Amino acid sequence: MIDPVTLATPFFILAVILEIVLSKLGKTRTRYEGKDTLVSLSLGLGSTLAGLLTAGVVFAASLWVYQHRIFTIPMTAWWAWAAIFFLEDLTYYGFHRISHERRVWWAAHVNHHSSQHYNLSTALRQTWTGGLNGTWLLWLPLAFLGFPPPMIAIEKSISLVYQFWIHTEAIRRLPAPIEAVFNTPSHHRVHHARNPRYLDSNYAGILIIWDRLFGTFVAEDEVEPPRYGIVKNLGDFNILRAVFHEWAAIGQDLWRSRSLREAAGYLFGPPGWSPDGSRQTSTQLKAAWARRPSPVTASAVVPGLVPGIQSQAATAPTGGSSAQGRG
Amino acid sequence: MTPAFLLQTLASFVAILLLVALAAWARIARPTPVLDEDTARALIAEEFPDHRIGPVWVADDGAAAIARSRDEALIVYRAGDGYVARSLSWSRLAEAKASGAAVALKLGDITAPRARFALAEGAIWPPAIGEAGR
Prior knowledge:
A: 327 residues, mainly alpha, B: 134 residues, alpha+beta, four-stranded antiparallel beta sheet, three-stranded antiparallel beta sheet, 3 helices, 31% helix, 28% strand
């Protein structure tokens, strides 16, 4: 079977080189930091190796479900590819949303977001533990519908390849019709931002229409550039910390939990949930942001803190949090 | 494990090293100028928007800063070309001991185990900064 990701890997490498060279020549505002790049690329390679451990189980499960399928969908029909394009992309939206909004799945996904940079190497910063927490189950209904497992695997890879190029600051905005329909660098910058107003938004894979449909779309505001990373950024570049920190934190919380309800909350509640409310979830952070009269932006006085932004006036939030797009 | 897989993995290792070397050679990291009191205060205010920030202490190398908000210590420190922010009780901050010209503060956080604060000669620890109300 032809794997689009394997085919695209040389282009990934060339694109990273191009982005670095263009930045060096002053043609783009992209930033690269050596240690951050090392962690991101190592996470990419490690993800491929870790994926091999669970690939057999995932494929076997897909085959088993496919044997009990409702329809038989031919891999050679154009309409079948059109159908799986939309259905896989919708499945990805669901997977991605649950990966942000429920902690046990966030634990596997967080390493994709823990860089304070947003460049093409960030795209390769993939999970090592995603195969273990069962999100692959979400794709089984496609096999049950009758899509052959190799077809599903190819479409998943096409989605992954598509999502590579949008991890860049080199491209600002694309023509409006493209921004309206597709996930673009601008939309995905918002997704990677830790500014409260941008949290938990733009979960799209290829098509941004799902976010628009389900109320999770937030447009990039030039007045408030994205600050990348996670709410509590990592304190160093230890790759094992980058992979396992949320799992370790969950373990600590489960150890300290005093009831099954608390344990369930720590596992399946949103990231930031705590029984005593001493931590903050994205919803609470966004609500607090909306209440503030005039948030301070450090980029106003720390040049370069936000890539490419040399100075910026403090900005006030506009409207309530509901206007910022959480569904 | 096939020879082709091993070759592919080895090639990936080499590609990673070359890309990291290129990124380091290009020197295109984010500029992180030495913090002064104004920049440190702005940074802390952005990270802790619901706290009232009083006087700010800046480490001797300008790579970290501390503000006090009631009984909380609000800290920021540089990691690579970015900053990391955490808060902890002022008493825990005060318990840390200076070693040489620096204090290594254990944060008790899996994601950020310790922060380092460079001290000027003769500097006292904890920093003598007043507290501000929340």
